[in-house]
Amino acid sequence: MENQVRYENETSDEVLISRFQQGDNYAFDLLVKRYKDPLINFIYRFLGSQTDAEDVLQETFLRLYKNKHYYKEIAKFSTWIYTIAGNLAKTELRKRRRRTFFSINQYGGEEKDYDIPDDSNNPEQETNTQITDDIIQEAIERLSPKFKEVIILRDIQGFSYDEISEMIKVPLGTVKSRVNRARLKLQADLQHLMKDVD
Amino acid sequence: MNTCDNAKAHFSDYIDGLLTPEEQAQVEAHTAVCAECRTVLQQVTQLTERIHTVAAISASDAFDQNLRARIMGTFPADPKPSYKRTFTFGFSGAAVLAALTFFVLSTFDGSNVETVPAGISGAAPKAQPELIRQDALPHPSLASETLKKDSLKNSPAHVDQKIQLVGQEK
């Protein structure tokens, strides 16, 4: 029992995926156990819906199960699995945009396709000096995908710039620039709530 | 780029402590004299710290079960050996073997084979398969046409049996 706990806690991701590649499905279970919560947190920040996030998370692990042999040890496992999850989340976002586009056009919508009514900007909430998690989530959702992705990876998931660069396959300088601009956009979006915050 | 834009471009690195001492000093020098940038830097810092504390969410209790069901649905466990499948493969193999045997024997010119008497062991000679008998053909000139009409002998190999007929004529 003690050995099993030690195995679960101390075995590296890379050893687990290697064992999974050799047919050890228990290693897969451990990877799911290890990553399901961090990944759903990551995907949820993208999509803003727990149900959709769980669907994408399932798809992520399904891809891992199906494509286990595509993983090569040149990259960290975490980088690889976050790349898969991020790509699937972005695909889901694109699908939503298309649905929103057609839905608004169907009712004779104008060019402002993405200007979905935003409750967080109503006067009642502006008086609220507390920046709740929901307000932050909504502000993150208003960012464009490329800014959203880096701010989630950096400020919520806590990855280094190098890791993010590897995950999203863009140069380090671009990642830093995007994080900086994303933070400035969030500040610009929420500054009316921060005037009273010391 | 003016000084404010230049300073703002370094705010993230400043917050993350990634600037060189000189760059850090430049940012601080600018924010000391620019109230707007000072406010922005202060708010970005507060917001970044606040985002770090956003409550994490967890996968639902049903997640593992749903994932397992989906994996089992997509990648069913290795099926047990099926008698039906085994029988099908066996039957197909036997059919192919029989067809091959029939093909080989039907292209074999029996007229050149001498009758083999019973061996020393006394085993009876193997029965010769019934070949296409010359007298069964309506006429040598029609033999080729007859073979073509036989649905089992439509392959070019069988059509070439005209060679056999020539040999038989000798």
- Percentage of residues in strands of chain B: under 5%
User: Mind describing the biggest β-sheet of chain B?
Assistant: none
Distance between the termini of chain B: 105 Å
Largest sheet of chain A: none
Uncertain regions spanning at least 5 consecutive residues of chain B: 113-170
Q: Tell me the series of helices and strands of chain B, N- to C-terminal.
A: HHHHHHHHH
- Helix and strand content put the structural class of chain B at mainly alpha
CATH class of the largest domain in chain A: Mainly Alpha
Helix content bin of chain A: over 70%
Which outline of chain A best applies?
globular
| Name given to the CATH architecture of the largest domain in chain A | Orthogonal Bundle
Query: Segments of chain A where pLDDT lies below 50 for 5+ residues?
Result: 108-128
CATH topology of the largest domain in chain A: Rna Polymerase Sigma Factor, Chain: A
Count of helical regions of chain B? 9
The CATH homologous superfamily of the largest domain in chain A corresponds to: RNA polymerase sigma factor, region 2, helix turn helix motif
**What is the residue-mean pLDDT of chain B, rounded to a whole number?**
70
Derived from helix and strand composition plus strand pairing, the structural class of chain A reads mainly alpha
Number of helices of chain A: 10
Question: How much helicity do the residues of chain B have?
Answer: 55-70%
Cα shape of chain B:
elongated
Task: Give an account of the 3D structure.
The complex is a heterodimer of chains A (198) and B (170). Chain A is mostly helical. Chain A has 2 domains: 1-114, Orthogonal Bundle (Rna Polymerase Sigma Factor, Chain: A), CATH 1.10.1740.10; 122-198, Winged helix-like DNA-binding domain superfamily/Winged helix DNA-binding domain (Arc Repressor Mutant, subunit A, Orthogonal Bundle), CATH 1.10.10.10. Helix content of chain A is 73%, strand content 0%. Chain A is built from 10 helices and no strands. Chain A has helices spanning 2-10, 13-21, 25-47, 50-66, 77-106, 123-126, 133-142, 145-156, 161-168, 172-194. In chain A, helix 3 (25-47) runs antiparallel to helix 4 (50-66) and helix 4 (50-66) packs across helix 5. The termini of chain A are far apart. By secondary structure, chain B is an all-alpha fold. Among the domains of chain B are: 3-52, no CATH class; 130-170, no CATH class. Chain B contains 9 helices and no strands. In chain B, helix 3 (21-33) packs across helix 4 (35-52). The N and C termini of chain B lie far apart (105 Å). Mean pLDDT of chain B is 70; it is low at 113-170. At the A-B interface, helix 3, helix 4, helix 7, helix 8 and helix 10 of A face helix 2, helix 4 and helix 5 of B.
